[in-house]
């Protein structure tokens, strides 16, 4: 998990939800409402994915956009901004995203918890039609 000051309050709600579900997580900050720079926390979560410390990531900032852009700069991190249930499911099913990002200024607490639930409830099918497209993203990344 990672957030900036804009996402801090919502992240506490997400943490409470994960606790209730008995799901393990690591919190890479930030740890208060004090203003911070979102790329720092997005990068920490990206690195946790990259080095295998974590399987999946959740990032929250004001819009969800900044943390998404920043996390996607870490090779191996594939972050998807999700605003609705369909996107939360497809982020995994179509895109094999290993991070979802959300905007605290965009969605409410209950929807955020539902998006986390939906994202975590679906599994990537390694034989699905999206595999070749996702592989092209990885190939392009390796060529950069
Ligand atoms: C605040 O720094 C705000 O810009 C941030 O939370 C986020 O919305 C950026 O994309």
Which tags fit this structure?
single chain; 144 residues; alpha/beta; 6 helices; globular; binds D-ribose
Helix/strand class: alpha/beta
Q: Which molecules are bound besides the chains? A: D-ribose
User: What's the arrangement of strands in the largest beta sheet?
Assistant: 1-2-4-3
Oligomer classification: single chain
CA(first)-CA(last) distance: 27 Å
Q: Whole-number radius of gyration?
A: 14 Å
Percent of residues in β-strands: 5-15%
Poorly predicted ranges: none
What does the overall shape look like? globular
- Per DSSP E runs of 2 or more residues, the count of β-strands stands at 4
- What is the tally of helical segments? 6
Mean pLDDT rating: 98
Taking the sheet with the most strands, its summary is: 4 strands, parallel
Encode the helix/strand succession as letters.
EHHEHEHEHH
Which percent range fits the helix content?
40-55%
Account of the 3D structure:
The chain is of the alpha/beta class and 144 residues long. Helix content is 48%, strand content 10%. It has six helices and four strands. It has helices spanning 8-21, 38-50, 65-71, 85-93, 109-121, 131-143, and strands spanning 2-3, 57-61, 79-81, 99-103. It has a four-stranded parallel β-sheet, with helices on both faces. Strand 3 (79-81), helix 4 and strand 4 (99-103) form a beta-alpha-beta unit. Helix 1 (8-21) crosses helix 5, helix 2 packs across helix 3 (65-71) and helix 4 packs parallel to helix 5. It is globular, with a radius of gyration of 14 Å. The relative contact order is 0.16. The site of D-ribose (RB5) has 8 residues, from helix 3. Residues 4, 6, 38, 61-63, 65-66 line the site of D-ribose.
């Amino acid at each position: 998990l990672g957030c900036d000051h804009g996402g801090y309050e919502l992240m506490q709600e997400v943490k409470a939800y994960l606790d209730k579900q008995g799901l393990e997580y690591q919190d890479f900050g930030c740890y208060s409402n004090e203003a911070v720079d979102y790329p720092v926390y997005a990068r920490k979560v990206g690195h946790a994915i990259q080095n295998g410390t974590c399987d999946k990531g959740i990032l929250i900032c004001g819009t969800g956009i900044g943390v998404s852009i920043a996390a996607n700069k870490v090779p191996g991190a594939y972050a998807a901004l999700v605003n609705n249930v369909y996107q939360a499911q497809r982020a995994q099913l179509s895109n094999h995203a290993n991070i979802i990002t959300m905007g605290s200024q965009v969605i409410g607490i209950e929807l955020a918890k539902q998006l986390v639930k939906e994202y975590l409830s679906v599994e990537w099918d390694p034989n699905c039609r999206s595999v070749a497209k996702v592989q092209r993203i990885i190939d392009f990344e390796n060529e950069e």
